[in-house]
Amino acid sequence: MPTPPVLALDRVSRDLAGRRVVRDLTLTLAKGEVLGLLGVNGAGKSTTLRMIAGVLAPSAGTVRIDGEDLAERAELARRRIGYLPEVPPLHTELTVTEFLAFCARLHGLAREADAAVGRAIERCGLGDVRRRLIGALSKGFRQRVGLAQAILHEPALIVLDEPASGLDPVQTLNLRELVRGLGADHAVVLSTHVLPDVVACCDRVAILHEGVLRHEGSLAGSMSAGIYVRTAKPMKTGDWLALPAVAAAAPAANDGMHWQIRLRDGASASTLAALIVERGVGLEELRAGNAALEETFMAIAAGGATAVAA
């Protein structure tokens, strides 16, 4: 019997204040995939994420986690889902360790709390601030604390609502790297209106507009004409071709740090990003080289695209 997807939305809709804000949404997500949920403000992204996280019940349709109906088994949200809303639910009067220990107890990890907190702190790079009050941390570190509370119980599904909102460029790059790492062991939904975040982190993209799914497909497919990459250290053509995800590479400038990359079939932007980070040359920018995703997004936002593209 085939393994069910970690997340399955079947014709999910939600009415708020007498208006249907999400309509007939159908999506699936497997372990090891990062889905970028795109849309302009008011497109229905946050409402969709609240339904996925079990915070908001659908008006129609079904949300399933590992094949089980979330409405019938509400405890699945606590055990199998990690949720980071746009404004992290932090207790600023607690230290990082105290807050995460409190969250671990809420997840029923009383006996394993210390180990779970230690893993989350290490994974989110919070070791140097673990004894500091959350209220004294920068926004970047507070976002990391919010992410740590979402992953400390090792959920099957991680739901992130605008996690890079308000961060500076360095903090944003660090957060993208963290999200890419989470995608190796979990199913991740990343909601944002920032296209570079999706390009850097995600395997697939879904675009909502006025509550309707207008486009869904692999990110590699959306960028078939190439990817623009900028690194901190120079690379050569042979260096790129040695990476298993790369089919071709051409310099976009003469300094060795600006490149147009074409991926092999089946490879994703997140795979390429991980390989660049692993090589240690410093990933500073990665985006669709032909702006295909941007063109699709803008066409949908302007009302020019109405069909779902696979």
Q: Please report the first level of CATH classification, the CATH class of the largest domain.
A: Alpha Beta
Termini, distance in Å?
26 Å
Proportion in helices:
25-40%
Q: Write the CATH architecture name of the largest domain.
A: 3-Layer(aba) Sandwich
> Biggest sheet, strands in spatial order?
6-7-8-3-9-10
Strand content: 25-35%
Summarize the structure.
The chain has 310 residues and is an alpha/beta fold.
Supply the key terms.
310 residues, alpha/beta, Rossmann fold, 2 domains, six-stranded mixed sheet, globular
Describe this structure in words.
It is a single chain. It is globular, with a radius of gyration of 20 Å. The protein has 2 domains: 214 residues, Rossmann fold (3-Layer(aba) Sandwich); 64 residues. The longest helix is centred in the middle third of the chain and has 14 residues. It has 310 residues and is α/β, with parallel strands linked by helices. The strands form 3 sheets. Strands 6-7-8-3-9-10 form a 6-stranded mixed β-sheet, with helices on both faces. A 4-stranded antiparallel β-sheet has the order 2-1-4-5, covered by helices on one side. Helix content is 32%, strand content 27%. A hairpin with a 2-residue loop joins β9 and β10.
